[in-house]
Amino acid sequence: MDQIDDLNPWSETDNKKKVRSVLDDELANKANNHKSETWKTSKLNESNLKSSSSVNIFEEHTSSNMKDQTVSKSDYLQAVHNNKQGDEEHVKSLDSWFSDLREEYSEYITFPVTVDIKQLDPKGVAFFKHIEYEITVNYNQCEKFVVNRRYSDFFWLMEYYNQKYPFRLLPELPPKIIPKNDAIYLKRRLEGLMMFSKLALNHPKLSKNEITSVFFQVDCEFASWRKSNNKIDFFDEFLNQKIDQHFLSNWDKKYMSLFIASVGTLDKQSNMWKNMCAHVERKFAKEKELFNEGFKLIKELEDMSLDNTIGDTFSLIEHLNFIEIHETKSYIADLKEKYKKFLDTPKTHGYFTDVHDEVISSFKVMLLTFESMKSLKERFDVLSGNNIFALNDKIEQNIQYLNTMIKSNPDSKSQEYDSIQKTIIRDKLELREQLNRQWLIKKCIMEEFLWFNEFVQYMNDSVLKCYINESASFISACSKNYNDMV
């Protein structure tokens, strides 16, 4: 990642060689200037060749038949001022853009769509045996859908997301290969599919995708459906998209600085949550072990209340009659029942079942979110490459060479002359597309970064509050039942 910040959303380098384009023209950026220019496929006149070779990727063609012309600096500044006045009421700051996004994300952050997945009995024989999962989806408790899917269907959906949304926060799938008939691994896969579905259905972008709707709503054999549907769009979401002028006009590098600082702490935060999750799991395991030890004490109390040896033990005490021995046995039997009620507290509150699953699942969702963010950064490193610098240098070299040809022989109309003209046009269009894509990626990254922040903040509060509240409620119930034994 060795490009300048304006071209690379993950870099803050300012001392590198910069492309002379709209990215470096602060005036053109802030005022949203649209310099009029018509690309001619057959001819470039000399005045155009002497102008700057940089391309404004956000340029609008005000007229398809406008004649080529050289804009003076004073005219340019006046045009900028006029455009700024005309667009002033329509331009929103990025702070406002972020606020609008937060409002949009607020309806997804609380997981309005709930998912329940059950593992069905294996189907098929021998090498064709496979496991299907029954998925029940509830949308705001209003709409309910039940579909059956195989793991291979989930795997295909994940591959589709990777191609369609390479710069989005995508949930991770559990491993495909597991030990044969291993119940523990099958349970972990089921939990992983649950978290994948939960995050996909409550993501602001993924949840609106048509393929997502088909996958979780249409009860059909998904493999057959996707094979018969040859119109599935696998192109990434930036195809034929143009960067939003409001976003470009109000861009501030401070947002990228905040993002870079956050990305640098992903490993540390992920490890912190991993350690907390391990601590909570150990705590549940130790508490369960202590209660299991308590049931052994129940057995001993029961034996003591029924055994006649208690009378032989107290026979050495003078004047101890049968009634007193009976009262002692009754107390022990009563203590046994109260202690049993105390030991039944986890079962009554579902502490080692429902509460445990909910708390641990929430912690694992947090871990999965951090892993997804790290995967997003890795995909960016691989997929966001460009040759903007090389194209810009090539265009400048060809323009200089063409100017030299014109000066040496103005009337020349050679084949080489036409070829260079076409090459310049083609390269400028390619440069325009690549710059536009880089800005679209930056905007997409900012959207996902905001979603990540909103999600982590909500989960930070909800996960820890859930854990503390459930623990406090359980301790309170245990304390009450324990005091009843006194």
Automatic annotation (TrEMBL):
<dbReference type="GO" id="GO:0005829">
    <property type="term" value="C:cytosol"/>
</dbReference>
<dbReference type="Pfam" id="PF00787">
    <property type="entry name" value="PX"/>
</dbReference>
<keyword id="KW-0963">Cytoplasm</keyword>
<dbReference type="InterPro" id="IPR028662">
    <property type="entry name" value="SNX8/Mvp1"/>
</dbReference>
<feature type="domain" description="PX">
    <location>
        <begin position="111"/>
        <end position="223"/>
    </location>
</feature>
<keyword id="KW-0653">Protein transport</keyword>
<dbReference type="Pfam" id="PF19566">
    <property type="entry name" value="Snx8_BAR_dom"/>
</dbReference>
<protein>
    <recommendedName>
        <fullName>Sorting nexin MVP1</fullName>
    </recommendedName>
</protein>
<dbReference type="GO" id="GO:0006623">
    <property type="term" value="P:protein targeting to vacuole"/>
</dbReference>
<feature type="region of interest" description="Disordered">
    <location>
        <begin position="1"/>
        <end position="21"/>
    </location>
</feature>
<comment type="similarity">
    <text>Belongs to the sorting nexin family.</text>
</comment>
<dbReference type="GO" id="GO:0042147">
    <property type="term" value="P:retrograde transport, endosome to Golgi"/>
</dbReference>
<dbReference type="GO" id="GO:0005768">
    <property type="term" value="C:endosome"/>
</dbReference>
<keyword id="KW-0813">Transport</keyword>
<dbReference type="InterPro" id="IPR036871">
    <property type="entry name" value="PX_dom_sf"/>
</dbReference>
<dbReference type="GO" id="GO:0016020">
    <property type="term" value="C:membrane"/>
</dbReference>
<keyword id="KW-0472">Membrane</keyword>
<dbReference type="InterPro" id="IPR045734">
    <property type="entry name" value="Snx8_BAR_dom"/>
</dbReference>
<dbReference type="GO" id="GO:0032266">
    <property type="term" value="F:phosphatidylinositol-3-phosphate binding"/>
</dbReference>
<dbReference type="InterPro" id="IPR001683">
    <property type="entry name" value="PX_dom"/>
</dbReference>
